[in-house]
Amino acid sequence: MNTTKAAGLTRREKYEAQQRRRSLIVAATSTVVVVACIIIFIPMTPGWEKVQRSFFNGDVLADTFPKLLDAFKINLMIFAWSAPAIAILGLLIALARDAKSPALFPLRIFGATFTDVFRGVPVILTVYLIGFGIPGLGLPRPWNSPYIWGSLALILTYAAYVAEIFRSGIDSVHQSQRSAALSLGLSERQVMRDVVLPQAIRNVVPSQMNMLIALQKDVSLLSFIGPVEIFRQAGVFKSLTANFTPYVGAAIIFLIVTIPATRYADYLMAKQMRDRS
Amino acid sequence: MKKALSIVAMTLMLTSTAVYADDHCAAGQTLTEGKFTIATGNPAYYPWVLDDAPESGQGFEAAVAYAVAAEMGFAAEDVVWVRSSFDEAIQPGAKNFDVNMQQYSITAARDEVVDFSAPYYTAPMAVLVSPGATETAPTLDALRDLKWGAVGSTTAVPKLTSVVQPTSDPLLYGDNADVNAAMSANQIDAALFDLPTALFLSAVMIEGSKVIGQFAPDASDNPDQFGMLLEEGNPLKACVDEALAVLTASGELATIEATWLQDTTGVPLIE
Q1: Which one of A137, A236, A245 makes the best mutation probe of the B interface by having the most chain B beta carbons within 10 Å?
Q2: Residues A141-200: pLDDT tens digits?
Q3: Is the CB of residue A144 less than 8 Å away from at least one CB of chain B?
Q4: What is the pTM of this model?
């Protein structure tokens, strides 16, 4: 309830307003000093001109940026079909690891082995092994495409991470809820589907957003087995111009996508904290 | 104690400068006085360097390196080898080599950032095809329909897009080994390399593959010429160029080429 004030601000409120002004001024001054130092002192270093020519070359950026944007479509395409597959496979693995029935023990073993292996192996090795290895077995075209098998490598690796996050979400739903639901006559399957999963998935949405952002960058690893996505395209330009600016261009494109996504993940996280408290 | 040290240092300096005659063109211009530091790839590939051991002087580039060093007045034991990636060679700032030799094609854009010596080899581009496509005719029309691959950091990429103009997008890789793997997995039919590399890959690395044709080196507006890479503005360039000019004029460069690089006239020209 807001009470109307009879005679302006109280002494306490005046003091607090003053404190706020003070910290604002201090923050602004320190920021200005730091930024000024960066702007003034870095260009004074002896190698700055060379670094600027190699990394922040306007002409090279203007020449290459449109083609980098074009190559980024390949990233988006791979991302678009990998993300849903990762979500589904990750959830299945999480459920496999949560299987309680003794008869399903092999499933649990499988789930545990899967996450251990694919979380433990560097992504690039998985990409090479599956991207070159499986087509090498003698698959006919177009079934040996690096797009298919490279994507599968990403899907397997990320599903392992995503499964662990789902599992922590499932564990976060208290055992008493399962017991209560079972006592109401729901089957194990219904308990999982209607009681546990809806809460578990909602609990881990912010963490999964972070996985999406990471995936978005790791799509570039497919460039090792052939697809000319943005990272490889930037590398080609780098070699032809002997200039690193195309990588900076690629970084800008990545940031345009990841910064809003990161902010959104932060927002979801903050919202979740508020809802819980 | 300090005095003793400085005397020792002075004597060392005197003796090391005394090794040279004053008219030595590389005097005072190399990274380490009295040593000639050459960078090569990691690994360095056949037939440019044999067995990844440039110190042996075996292989075309290793042999050229020692010939140039000798011409510049360095004894074989004064040649120091280091390894470098392409990126290390073009990064701004001080370099850890005097010259870098790993089949760098001289291009105008690269020349703005680093310096190149005079060319020591002119490499025609050649087409290496997978075992399943060895019957392809060496004509541009026939080549266009193949599934192409290349190493992304080489000048094969612009050549591919401007001259061959394949009907499907080429796949690009990080190094020769990856192109090899993609060809073995039948993901690509053909790949573009400089001719000596193509011949080596077909003979040793990819069973059943074949070099079906080469592009005439002077046909395009940008013949692929290999030069030694130097830091931009390195005064040593004049000295290296002079040595290469002498080697070219005396026919020694041609002899080295004949020794280490296979006769390439047997590969048909692409029409």
Answers
A1: A236
A2: 888 899 999 999 999 999 999 999 999 999 999 999 999 999 999 998 899 999 999 999
A3: yes
A4: 0.80
Q: Which domain holds residue A37?
A: 11-44
Alpha-helix residue ranges (DSSP H) falling in chain B: 2-18, 60-71, 86-90, 108-111, 140-144, 156-159, 176-184, 195-200, 236-250, 252-260
> How many cross-chain Cβ pairs, A to B, lie less than 8 Å apart?
98
Does residue A238 belong to the interface with chain B, where contact is any CB pair within 8 Å?
A: yes
Locate the domains of chain B by residue range. Answer: 24-122+225-260, 125-214
Q: What is the DSSP letter of B194?
A: E
Q: What fold, for B125-214?
A: D-Maltodextrin-Binding Protein; domain 2 (3.40.190)
Considering chain A, what is the average pLDDT of its residues? 90
| Cα–Cα distance measured from residue A87 to residue A79, given in angstroms and rounded to the nearest whole number | 12
Superfamily the domain B24-122+225-260 falls into: Periplasmic binding protein-like II (3.40.190.10)
Conformation bin of residue B194: beta by default, left when phi > 0, alpha when psi is -120 to 50: beta
**Contacts A53 to B, Cβ<8 Å:** 92, 113
* Separation of alpha carbons B74 and A23, rounded Å: 66
Instruction: State ipTM.
Output: 0.77
